[in-house]
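Troubleshooting entry. Yesterday's outputs looked truncated, so today I'm pasting the complete records for two proteins to confirm everything comes through intact. If either block looks cut off, that's the bug. Protein one:
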Amino acid sequence: MNSKISKYGIYAIIALWGVACFTFFHFAYRHHLFYEEQNQLFLLTSDYVATYFNKPAWLACLAGDFLTSLYYYLFAGPAILTAMLLVAGDVLRRSLQKAGIRHGCFFVAIVVMTILAVMSLKTEFRLSSIMAVIIGGALFLCVSFFQIHKQPWCIIVDVIAVAFAHWVAGVGAMVYAILAVIRALVRREPWRWCSLALPFVPIIISLLTVNYYTLKPSDSILYPGVGKLTMPNLELERQLAVEDEYYFGNYEEVERLVESNDKPSLHELFFYNLVSAQKDMLPDRLMKYRPNELGTFEKIGPDTHILTTKRMHELYWLIGDMTYTERAAMLANVFSPSNRNVKMIKCLAETSKVSGNDKAAEKFLRLLDNTLIYGKWAERTRMDVSGKYADKAKMINTKDSIKTGDNAYPILCELLESNPNNTIALDYLLCSDLLLKDLKTFKRDYDHFCGNKPRLKKLYQQALMIYLAASETPVEQWSEYIKDEHELQRFMMYNSHRGDPAFSDTYWYYYDKMKLNK
């Protein structure tokens, strides 16, 4: 009776562990899981599936990546991850019992489940690695089911099974080998000392297949990878949350997330500014957070943070430069695992639609047709019923020029020359000038692009006051630029108390007190 109560208690602990795991990943970490889904492009085609045979652990990777593609849905990611962790723990527990261990199997299973869950906190740790553990343990159970270990030739079967496990599960071969060694030692099989050689089988196979798999032996043995113990990165989760909400068009939620944070990161501010620009509020909010991040000073290269690389296409898309949008999406693909990123493929399809290159768009849309999730999106993009891409085409750069590097200044100027009504590009241009404290360039750009239609934003009025005062412009000429009498009175008050924190929301304070970003 007590054993039954104890057994039910263990199952209750495992159930509570599963609930806690799901709750954490759903409510506190789901954006990490969505990032993993976006970082691949799983195609339901025979050609794509065949690529998995180019590396060991093809079955574990195929199953893991397919399930990862379902992380797109709200509850699916945490549910799938929790389920696979529970399955891994159960398979390991049953394997240990089959190996002859009488006590502590549940405890070991819970420890291993917890370790795998902690490793899953990093986006680099693939679900395929958990699948490899499951397959390795399940293969051991299948072999043990037939009681082959009682035969003198069982060591030959174990060698074949380990080799097979390496082919289908990579690191799962080591799981099988360790379980087989435990079984031989616990059951005191006569040939148990021969079983100690089983862990060397994957090493030998990796050395023999180094040219075929093009992997270092150490990577081949542990493929698809062994994670590291780490703490939850809740700051990164918040950044990914802002990015995802922008991606889904939930702009109010982007604003709420950023404004509820006392010190939002530059990554969060980048998307906050994109939302502000679309609401015609970029100049109104530019001085709200310091330092700020527009993205117009970024240079993409091998040392650029991966989050920066994968967000730049959003800026170029918003201001209307399709050439640089395409370039940014291509670079983000290059720095994605296996050079695949579903978000970038969608971006490339849209960019081609806006540019009128339907054949190129169709190339990307056909890829999305072969996914489980994005087929309907591809069809809607082909139809463009709302005219979204036709409207965006009115903003594109029509100037013939060759640009090198990531200098956004000539890009913004050419966009405004092509379409003077591109207010978003105008605000990014003028706000970039002001963040650099380059009032001479600001004044020139303001005259050139706002001469016939003044942009009467408080921020621009404040900057013009500094320029006019510094250039000793006669007072009677100020009225050509300064239309806000209230701000003019505040400027006079500020000059009497320069650097006063009471004016910290103004460009005057920024110009006098704030250091430029390096």
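Protein two, checking that the full record survives here as well:
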Amino acid sequence: MLIGLQNLTFEFGARVIVEDATWHIHPGERIGLIGYNGTGKSTLLKVLTQQYTPSKGTVEKSKDTTIGYLHQDLLSFDTNESILEVAMGAFEKIKQLEKEIEELGIKLTENSDDESLLMLYSDKLHDLEVAGGYNVHHKTEEVLQGLGFENKDLQRPYKEFSGGWRMRVLLAKMILQQPDVLLLDEPTNHLDLPSIEWLEKYLMHYQGSVVIVSHDKYFLNRMVNKIVELYQQQLHIYSGNYEYYETEKAVRIEMQQKAYENQQDYIRQNERLIERFRAKASKAAMAQSLIKKLDKLERIETAELERPNIKINFQVDKQPGKIIASLKNIHKNFGENIIIKNGNAEIDRGDKIALIGANGKGKSTLLRIIAGTEKFEGQREWGHNVEESFYAQHQLEALNLNNTILDEMKECGSQKTDLELRALLGCFLFSGDETDKKIRVLSGGEKARVALAKVIVSKSNFLMLDEPTNHLDMHSVELLADALNKYEGSLILVSHDRYFISKTANKIWEIVDNEIKEFKGTYTEWVAWNERMAKQKALLDKQKIDPEKQVVIEKKKEIKLQQNTHETTVLKNDLKQLQKKIKKIEETINEFAQQKETIELELAKPENYTNHVAFAALEANYKKVVDEKIQLDKSYEALFEKIMELEEKIEMR
């Protein structure tokens, strides 16, 4: 066990986060920590790192266990160092060694004959090599590039980057530290699709244990082999990925509900008996006995979900024409950075487009061009009867700060009742009295959810959505995806949530070489198509080799094969010769062993002790036999080693 919670209870003020929980993290586990927003997942990670002290129970940790914890609060960190230097902070010991070596080098220029300095310098170089110091720069660059940074960015100051890119640098540093337990709180929030895919591949081969808090179902499904759900102040453990958890939880809920219903039947039967017996004096004692029995009964909770599966219903006021929008000869650049050049595309009625790709390729820029909030060259034309609605982070500024959440929703003109609006807001994580909060007191994430809810409740027939799932939990993402599937209008969205994209999109747009490339199909089909294209390219690249060069390559392969075959034959012949030699030596050794035994018997006879001449001759002969046997034993060992080497060479061919 690396870390463990033992009968732990933790309270945050008057609110119980977890009660009497036991959970052990073992080596090699990849765990998904899940639960509705606000249940306390991030708080539980802080309990694991002992930043918070439990009111009851213990947090146990092996003495040598190291923990890396990536969380959103890290964004407050600031420095003028380059991002390469920040990430290389993972190698404090190596950096210290490099500093010491540099200082020793300066001293040696002044005292080149100082042998003690030379020895110390040599020792430090050896320590650096053992610690992998000559590879850390390359390794750091590799991790940063995997997370989306370009070579030209590596020397830029950390403070120049936005919050999302800063989080990537800190994630790189944590990965490079290679702690025994890696705690990741929403690691995909600031990553684009290529970076998420890189992180997946990396974590799949990570030697330590990983605990992931994420609302990205696709990511969890591929990454984890255990799910720990924080639900109703308890930790529920499932041995499998997220898909397994969903199936198993449904079974557990069904079993719990049946047990609850059976217990309720039992309680009702006993309550009826109590009512009947109370009326009769002769049965009063029996009634009291039944009451005590029910009082001691451990009640089973109903298996109702904490939040019901509310359906989000879209309404479309007008049906648009066949074409929603057309883009003609679109050009957009920021200084020398060209985003789109001569871009042409068309959005048709019924299209549900996912605009995907790496950060910095212009996805959000293209979405703003379509919405008309970004200046550009070229033409963007709306179709007939198109009523559009645009959701993006900057839409938060359009919220009326003096409104309550409910009042803000009423101003959308959807004609929905207060009850319907409150139900809809429940899907966006506003429940009960929270809908009466003023917009001005909401956090950035809460404002984003209100803005998204406003877009959803509008009667627009065309939606433009920029990262709509960023502030939602998995339950809400599922509800939104189902709603968009049933939506009769058209939409285009930018998202890094692959599960959400796979559930909603019927077309994929990607900006490649400054052009808009369209794939007519789902995300799953696009991934499969990309894999086929990669295989075909590899095959074509192979076929592009000059025919004469290919003949030379094949000839070299043939010669190499012949050489290997010849060498193997020679080796086998050598092996046979050695085996013959060793057999002869074994026979000779046996003969000498018999001679030695015969002489020992002669030497042991009493009459030979009195005959000094005979004894001396026997003793001399005995020494000769022993010496020759020692030499034979050495020859035998040498031959045996040669035979082992030859057998190993033959096996490797």
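Both blocks look complete. Sanity check on protein two: The chain has a mean pLDDT of 84.
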